[in-house]
Amino acid sequence: MLRQLKEPFQYQRPDKAAEAPASEQAAGKGKKKPRAQNASQTLRQMWSYLIGYKGKLFAVMVMILLSSGFSLLGPYLAGTAVDHFLVNRDSGFVVFLIGMAVVYALHSITMWLQSIWMITISQKTVYRMRVQLFEHLHRLPIPYFSKRQHGELMSRVTNDIENVSSSLNSSVIQVFSSVLLLIGTVSVMLSLSPLLTLLTFLVIPLMLLGMKWITKQTGRLFKAQQRNLGDLNGYIEETLSGQRIVKAFSQEETVITAFKERNERILVSGFWAQTISGFIPKLMNALNNLSFAIIAGIGAVFVLNDAITVGVIVIFAEYSRQFTRPLNDLANQWNTMLSAIAGAERVFDVLSEEEERTDEANASELNEVKGHVVFDHVTFAYEGRSATIKDVSFNLAPGETVALVGPTGAGKTTLIQLLCRFYDPSSGSIRIDGQDTKEIKRENLRSHMAFVLQDPFLFEGTISDNIRYGKLDATDAEVEQAARLANAHSFIVRMKNGYHAILKSDGSGISQGQKQLLAIARAILANPSILVLDEATSSIDTVTEIKIQEALQRLMQGRTSFVIAHRLNTIQQADQIVVLRDGAIIEKGSHAELLQQKGFYSSLVGGHLQSS
User: What is the pLDDT confidence band of residue 391, given thresholds at 50, 70 and 90?
Assistant: First the structure.
């Protein structure tokens, strides 16, 4: 740790594999957006959001111009007061004070207005960015999420956009105000004394060299800090979600050690980013004092030789500080902007990912689905990999059930993903009621399907809301009827508040079997034509399994069903069993027919399939 702190510039970036574009990993191809690769491109993309508020931005610029003018006028009036009221003893001092008060009051008002208006613009901008990012995440293909930690993606929606918000709130005003102050200050200084102005500028090269070196180092460190923060968030989300597994295998110390390692990366990058950026105000203060000393010393000589007045020295002394202050502000805001740019790059990196392939121009919708499903010589390979599904063909009549059986990695889940059009076949076709799924709109296709998975997911909310997720406009009576058919009604009414009981995230507080019953109720309410059951009775106790099996039988009745299961009593009821190995069908038939063949399925029944 100490060695790392002593050698900040040897800090190694984390493996970039986690940042690989989804276009290199996902099979789907959609519209490609430009990827943010540098600060200038990121700023151009940010401007595309801000340009929608041109009117308010113009008003902010006007206020910045006015406030800068008032800021410049104050020191000038102070120097004038020295010459007129202290040296020459002129009258009208009270009127002058009132004028000064008005100037500083107007300065405060314009500062307040520009701040309020800029906050409005920035909040609306990041609101649009956050909405667009969230919407885009829901348009990305499923494979993208399997390659990313959920916590890392959450960090982009929250932390990174918040960095952008903070920068827009303050940095935009500060940058423009500082630039205007610099221009105005230099103009007034040159008009008063070109020679003193040039002497003041002697410190500028030192400032620029120091700022260039500092910002070069902090830029990459701020990027590393944001990246490391995303990695830490992803790890926290992962370990908290898997707490039962962590404790079951007594891996608390292991995950704590891994957390410390990730936390240390943030410490190192954050320490050096903040430490090096902290040199800027110290450098500016030192150079500011040097500039003040030059003006005081040489200005005194000029006064003694009647080249300038005392008031001019006062003005120059104040302007010299006002000259370095915007430079200091620019340097400080530059570090804030570097952090914001790093966050914005990570946001635009997600926004540049290819969305799920759009529907074909001739894609249509299915109004009624009978459920006749045909896999016709389907072959599929993930991008850059060998074929996962190899020449698969089978025919499923309306209302029939097919059980997909085979060892892990045989291709069962991939077939379901092809059916749902998470991917499209590399060759061959999948037809529903005679229509190729490629010619059906994805959203419409999936609206005719329902899923009951091994790990049912429940959202935070009431039990009623979770069941109603299958049909958002369902009445309370329809929700209750679905729960009764799913054998869930009895345990629901025993809970406090019944159907209005609040479930926490992912349904914590109820058993795995109860979650599964609610998932079945949700599927029943959706009233699908095609049903997918993926290990729906896995890891369930015998009593609960009986309830689930009864509910599933009601759910499957009259519906075309795809079943992936390891329990014999689930499989043997299927009208058709398709046995897969290495992505190819090796056996096909009913339970009795396959047992008679005494082949691979028969050996699975004898040794691997679970009987209840």
Answer: very high
Q: What φ, ψ does residue 392 adopt, rounded to 5°?
A: -90, 130
The fold of 371-448+560-612 is: Rossmann fold (3.40.50)
Its pTM stands at: 0.62
Could you tell me the two tokens for 98? Answer: 């009132």
pLDDT in tens, 558-609: 889 998 876 676 788 889 999 999 999 999 998 888 888 888 888 887 755 5
10 against 244, higher pLDDT = 244
CA count, 13 A, side-chain hemisphere, 241 = 13
Question: Using CA atoms, how far apart are residues 189 and 312, in angstroms rounded to an integer?
Answer: 9
Instruction: Name the token pair of 243.
Output: 């707490």
Contacts of 8 (CB under 8 A, 6+ apart): 217, 221, 268, 271, 272, 276
Q: How many residues does the chain have?
A: 612
Apex 316 CA angle, 68 and 90, nearest 5: 95
How many angstroms separate the CA atoms of 43 and 489, rounded? 55
Q: Which of 9-18, 137-146, 269-278, 590-599 is predicted most confidently?
A: 590-599
Query: 593: which 2 tokens?
Result: 């027919």
What's residue 1's pLDDT? Answer: 36
**Delimiting residues of CATH 3.40.50.300 domain(s) in the chain:** 371-448+560-612
Phi, psi values for residue 580, rounded to 5°: -115, 145
Assess contact for 597 and 590: CB atoms under 8 A.
Answer: no
Q: For the chain, state the CA radius of gyration.
A: 34
Specify burial of residue 384 (Cβ count, 10 A radius: 0-12, 13-18, 19+).
Answer: exposed
With 0-12 / 13-18 / 19 or more C-beta atoms within 10 angstroms meaning exposed / middle / buried, residue 575 is middle
Mean of the per-residue pLDDT values of the chain: 78
User: How much is the pLDDT for 548?
Assistant: 78
- Give the residue from 318, 330, 292 showing the smallest Cα distance to 71: 318
pLDDT at 8 over 60: no
Whether residue 68 contacts residue 184, with contact meaning beta carbons closer than 8 Å, is answered with yes
Q: Which CATH fold topology does 40-351 show? A: ABC transporter transmembrane region fold (1.20.1560)
| Number of continuous H segments (helices) and E segments (strands) in the chain | 23, 12
CA 279 from chain centre, in angstroms, equals 32
Least confident of 68-72, 73-77, 481-485, 540-544: 540-544
CATH 1.20.1560.10 residue spans of the chain: 40-351
Residues 302-339 as b/e (b if ≥16 CB within 10 A, e otherwise) read: beeeeebbebbbbbbbbbbbbbbbbbbbbbbbbbbbbb
